[in-house]
Amino acid sequence: MTYDIATIPGDGIGQTVVEAALPVLREAGDVYGFEFDVTAYDWGTERYREEGAMMPDDALEQLEPRDAILLGAVGHPDVPDHVTLHGLLLPIRKAFNQYVCKRPTVLYEGVESPLRGYDGGDIDFVVYRENTEGEYADIGGREHRGFDNDVAIQSALFTRQGVERIVRQAFRAASRRRGKLTNVTKSNAQAYGMVLWDDIVEEVATEFPDVTVERLLVDAASMDLVRRPEEFDVLVASNLFGDILTDIGAVISGSMGLAPSANVNPEGEYPSLFEPVHGSAPDIVGREIANPLATVLSGAMLLEHVGEPEAAAGVRDAVRAQLAAPAAPRTPDLGGEASTFEVARDVEARL
Amino acid sequence: MTYDIATIPGDGIGQTVVEAALPVLREAGDVYGFEFDVTAYDWGTERYREEGAMMPDDALEQLEPRDAILLGAVGHPDVPDHVTLHGLLLPIRKAFNQYVCKRPTVLYEGVESPLRGYDGGDIDFVVYRENTEGEYADIGGREHRGFDNDVAIQSALFTRQGVERIVRQAFRAASRRRGKLTNVTKSNAQAYGMVLWDDIVEEVATEFPDVTVERLLVDAASMDLVRRPEEFDVLVASNLFGDILTDIGAVISGSMGLAPSANVNPEGEYPSLFEPVHGSAPDIVGREIANPLATVLSGAMLLEHVGEPEAAAGVRDAVRAQLAAPAAPRTPDLGGEASTFEVARDVEARL
Ligand SMILES: CC(C)[C@H](C(=O)O)[C@@H](O)C(=O)O
Ligand SMILES: CC(C)[C@H](C(=O)O)[C@@H](O)C(=O)O
């Protein structure tokens, strides 16, 4: 079996972590009996500066036939974020209908959480984030710029289809896991979009009698991820709320450098995209100290998605074993002094 | 001097904490030489059930002449939140142009933060939250309810005047404090409202050359409040983002039961409202174990606002001394067994 994979290393440490993680995935192929055919795309801010666009006009056509996409990071301090993101990451999520953004938070053995009293194994939840509409919809405008009556409207869009499909995926995940779903909204203050969301959660819940549903407001949920993270199993949230909750998830799991993510089109009509939650980290760029594990773990999600669950588990076990081994190399974010490549090679060896 | 104060104890533990906190404020009056004329309003969910409205039609007229309002909490498990809130708290914030929601986070000596490695004195920041528009604007709608094309739009509104005034207040606070302002937006994904906000922060910054401005995206800010809370001084954020950040602030300061807040109309055209950040806590209602300190500290903010800064400092010092005293009474949220009233009386005695 050969998988046709696109990589978009992108900007900053994105390039380093993708370069380091790819050999781990290839090694998993050797061990579990498959191959990768990798096409690397040099899209990103450098290209934007030279050619005025983050990606070429036919970028989506080039990506569409691939089995999956592995992305490093996009963003550069000299270019406004809305340019880099609306020029690459966000259009891919939308065009390929990657409506599930799946982000697990696991506190691994051997990793110190910033939360007092939590040890490896204590935290294990996954956020299902809606990934194509909600607060990220490109609806709104601004008028009278610079004048006293300068005003902007930013509209969040919630469609039944858009909400129902992410909610159903989250319920499925909960019934495969520990049977608990936390629905995070802000219906007390946002009576249109969030109430539609809550209504649909109630409807879909009837299809999953084995799943217990908890409702939390986003402010309370943000607090509870710090106060009682062990009680969460699956959380489902809108695009913006999922963004916030998963960053809190990343920090409580000990390092942003350990948080993977998958932007999935579950029907497989389009390729899905896998990327670390962290950004391009301009502050440490070029030093080869970025933690490659978030990208390696995103690669494991990619393997699972293309149909290699054993290889995915193998990669995850190798990461788990490395983190649990006191003498194994660690990047500075985990208190070590190893380089990106040393850490990745050590995972490879453990496979 | 006599201050004309309205209290709205509201629902659940709101009633207990206001009842417990008032004598502390009266005692501060005795010590510092002023009096309170208190009018208590029994508005809330019980009234809603009996008379169909949380407050009477002329509620705002009744409140308007007061020097300040002390609120407990509103919300009841049997009544949808959007009813209780849009029927009382949110209309007061809007009608009285309480455009500054000021919420300090202080980790007091003697209180354990859930964050590893943080001790009393290590965390001290304040969030300036926009309190009248943004994501809480009542703009939007829903169509085709129940059909396949069911769709909802929820629009956030940002006006120059609305943003400029909160931003300016935040800059003022930063220049009185440690000179650092963190501006929290999500301009990379929300290119209308949040970009207007960022523009205005840049403009107003020119009036405050002594203040250093940091920009953070809301996801990163939520993470950083857990990862490096000691580095924050003043944060400024929209209505929704401020809501989320201040709940994270409350939890890292050791207990929701310690987090005060002020909804301020800085020009004094209308009364300002002071309330604990916590809600009506239906789970512990009637047991007299709610921590009164968030309300006592909100009362200190009230004293400061009406022009009694020494009395405010006195109340704060008494709370600080109580929390630092190992043998002093504590409510269960802080690991003790004392009642709401025991804790309040102990603060009173320390005055
Ligand atoms: C970069 C940004 C637009 C993006 C998002 O908000 O979705 C990022 O924070 C993420 O979580 O993938
Ligand atoms: C109750 C709710 C509407 C309110 C808000 O979101 O403003 C509360 O969470 C708060 O922070 O005061």
Bound ligands, each once: 3-isopropylmalic acid
Order of helices and strands of chain A: EHEHHEHEEEEHEHEHEHEEHHH
In helices, the fraction of residues of chain A equals 40-55%
CATH superfamily of the largest domain in chain A: Isopropylmalate Dehydrogenase
Strand order of the largest sheet of chain A: 2-1-3-12-11-4-5-10-8-9
Named CATH architecture of the largest domain in chain A = 3-Layer(aba) Sandwich
The residue-averaged pLDDT of chain A reads 96
For the secondary structure, the number of strands of chain A is 12
Q: Please count the helical segments of chain A.
A: 11
Could you describe the 3D structure shown?
Two copies of one chain form a homodimer. With 351 residues, the first copy, chain A, is α/β, with parallel strands linked by helices. Chain A has two domains: 1-99 and 262-351, Isopropylmalate Dehydrogenase (3-Layer(aba) Sandwich), CATH 3.40.718.10; 124-252, Isopropylmalate Dehydrogenase. Helix content of chain A is 40%, strand content 23%. Chain A contains eleven helices and twelve strands. Chain A has helices spanning 13-32, 45-51, 59-63, 81-95, 160-176, 193-205, 218-227, 239-252, 293-306, 309-324, 340-350, and strands at 2-10, 35-40, 68-73, 100-106, 124-130, 134-143, 151-159, 180-185, 212-217, 234-237, 260-264, 272-276. In chain A, helix 1 (13-32) crosses helix 9 (293-306), helix 5 (160-176) crosses helix 6 (193-205) and helix 9 (293-306) packs antiparallel against helix 10. The first copy, chain A, starts with a strand and ends with a helix. The mean pLDDT of chain A is 96. The interface between A and B is large, with 68 and 68 residues. Strand 7 (151-159) of chain A pairs antiparallel with strand 7 of chain B. The complex binds 3-isopropylmalic acid (2 copies). One 3-isopropylmalic acid binds next to loops of chain A.
